[in-house]
Write a structure and sequence with these properties.
By secondary structure, the protein is α+β, with helices and mostly antiparallel strands. The chain has three domains: 212 residues, Arp2/3 complex 21 kDa subunit ARPC3 (Orthogonal Bundle); 136 residues, no CATH class; 143 residues, Alpha-Beta Plaits, CATH 3.30.70.270. It is built from 16 helices and nine strands. The strands form three sheets. Strands 2-3-1-8-9 form a five-stranded mixed sheet, sandwiched between helices. It has a two-stranded antiparallel ribbon with strand order 4-7. The protein has a two-stranded antiparallel sheet with strand order 5-6. It catalyses: 2 GTP = 3',3'-c-di-GMP + 2 diphosphate. GO terms for molecular function: diguanylate cyclase activity. This is diguanylate cyclase.
Length: 538
């Protein structure tokens, strides 16, 4: 199933733009068909635009737009041409009936063409039947031709026949014989069928894949420009036919040109001036024919200019809204990237790059947090929270003798061995060069001592091959190289074994984190003073 093309997600402004286009098309037909001797008959435009609106926005939005647009288009004509014998309520009833017939015609055409989904007009507009991918009819299949013929002829034929009968029955048209009714019905049917045949495929090819994509409102501006240039072309035609009001067709193009230069106030002022001149002309201020039909034609021309200009204003405003939204999205993206970068920098500032464990800063934050939480415990009992400080025996001497590369491998291996024995509630940190600190939650001092013995066994089980050259002289390796010493040897198969001393301290009630850490360090120093592989509590 092909998804429908939607102007900016079928928003309120999108619906207003479609309504303005539908109304402008109707008044274009009313205004231009009154020019003496002209062949510019545009009464077929609204029917095609209404069906395209159902395709683009869905039946739930498109059909109400057709009904409202029909009310706007026919209101001026019905009330201006109302015979004395027809009351205002009767005219309102006729106006509603005409709008209902236009809506029914669009609904029938949409249903026959399969634009409203398998469940009918109330179906999901996104579940539409496949439409031709372009405005060309040459690639359509026979089923599409069949649906298109039904949509183009059946709906308009029924509704136009009802419309003509209604106009004659209401007294708006003189009584006519059957031949006259048939002639009017055929004319309206052909006009509406032309609208469906010409407009819908053209809009389908023009809008498919563009109008629903974000940032493609330049297409709307191009359509507005095409309307403006078309109006400019009609100005000399109207002047040649001695219709001076055709100069009002310049107003939408002037407004669009001003809008492109972000001169919204000037555009509105020029539009107001043009409409003021037209209103004065309708009221006979300027020399001209004061006939009522001519005044109605001028009024239709005014409304056409107004609706076209509002359509262009809407397109321009939507385009500016899209630009602002795009800028806001870019700002939000950059803000998100900056936040992630700051969070990454914060994590890097609390992480040991070699082992991936938390560093001394992270350890201090953890101790402050745990001590603060423990201080709020009721009853004054000692919290089951212990600190285990691990120091690798002889790490500094090993690092100096074998080099930093071996020292790094020792630290990584020791971190992996210690992490393997840590429980889910424990947190391991690398607190200094060869020192690790383990925060044991829900663990009393004797439990921490048991864990320390397991950790000591795991460290003692480590055996790493020596892959760095060892200097056998008393000089450091770099000094031996400078003096030309040749007593650097690379022991073959030599391995080193590790051991560690442990200092343990359990947090006492009311104790701050600094004193707690100091007791653990003192216990570690006591263990180191007694030899290698010792465990002491503080």
């Amino acid at each position: 199933m092909a998804a429908p093309v939607v102007f900016s997600g079928a928003s309120l402004l999108s619906a207003v733009l479609w309504l303005a286009g539908y109304t402008a098309a109707g008044y274009a037909g009313l205004a231009l068909t009154t020019l003496p001797g002209t062949w510019l008959t545009l009464v077929w435009l609204p029917s095609g635009i209404g069906l395209a609106a159902v395709w683009a926005l869905g039946a739930r939005i498109g059909l109400p737009l057709v009904a409202l647009g029909s009310l706007l288009i026919n209101a001026s004509g019905i009330f201006a041409a109302r015979p004395p014998a027809v009351s205002v309520p009767e005219a309102l009833l006729l106006l509603v009936a005409v709008a209902a017939l236009d809506t029914v015609q669009t609904a029938v055409a949409a249903r026959l063409w399969g634009l409203c989904g398998p469940s009918g007009l109330r179906g999901d507009p996104r579940q539409t039947a496949p439409l031709p991918s372009s405005g060309s009819c040459l690639t359509w299949s026979l089923p599409i031709y069949g649906r298109f013929a039904l949509a183009a002829l059946a709906g308009p034929a029924l509704t136009c026949w009802a419309l003509v009968l209604l106009a004659h029955a209401s007294g708006y048209a003189p009584a006519a014989d059957t031949a006259g009714l048939l002639s009017e019905t055929v004319m309206l049917t052909v006009a509406d069928a032309l609208g469906i045949v010409l407009v819908v495929p053209a809009l389908a090819g023009l809008l498919r894949g563009l109008a629903s994509a974000r940032g493609h409102w330049a297409l709307g501006e191009d359509v507005g420009s095409a309307l403006g240039y078309g109006l400019l072309a009609l100005v000399p035609v109207g002047l040649a036919l001695e219709v001076p009001e055709a100069l009002a067709l310049l107003a939408p193009m002037v407004a669009l040109a001003l809008l492109r230069h972000r001169l919204l106030g000037v555009a509105l002022a020029s539009l107001f001036a043009a409409l003021s001149v037209m209103v004065l002309a309708v009221h006979g201020v300027f020399p001209g024919d004061g006939d009522a039909d001519v005044s109605l034609d001028r009024l239709n021309l005014i409304i056409l200019c107004l609706t076209l200009t509002l359509l262009l204003l809407g397109v321009a405003c939507e385009q500016m809204h899209q630009e602002r939204q795009l800028l806001a999205d870019r700002v939000a993206l950059r803000t998100h990237e900056l936040s992630e970068a700051l969070a990454m920098a914060e994590r890097m500032g609390q992480t040991d790059l070699l082992t991936g464990l938390g560093n001394r800063r992270a350890l201090q934050d953890c101790l402050m947090h745990e001590a603060a939480v423990a201080s709020r415990r009721p009853g004054g009992e000692d919290p089951d929270l212990s600190l285990v400080v691990v120091n690798l025996d002889g790490f500094r001497r090993l690092n100096e003798q074998y080099g930093a590369a071996l020292g790094d491998r020792v630290l990584v291996a020791a971190a992996e061995a210690l992490s393997h024995l840590c429980r889910g509630t424990d947190t391991l940190f690398r607190s200094s060069a060869g020192e690790f600190t383990l925060v044991c939650r829900s663990t009393p001092e004797d439990g921490a001592a048991v864990l320390a013995r397991k950790l000591a066994a795991a460290v003692s089980a480590l055996s790493l091959p020596v892959q760095e050259p060892r200097a056998e002289s008393d000089l450091p390796a770099f000094l031996a190289g400078l003096t030309g010493a040749t007593d650097l040897t690379v022991p073959q198969g030599e391995r080193i074994r590790l051991s560690a001393c442990f200092g343990i301290a359990a947090l006492r009630s009311g104790e701050d984190w600094e004193h707690w850490q100091r007791r653990a360090d003192e216990a570690l120093q006591e263990a180191r003073s007694e030899g290698v592989g010792r465990i002491r509590t503080g």
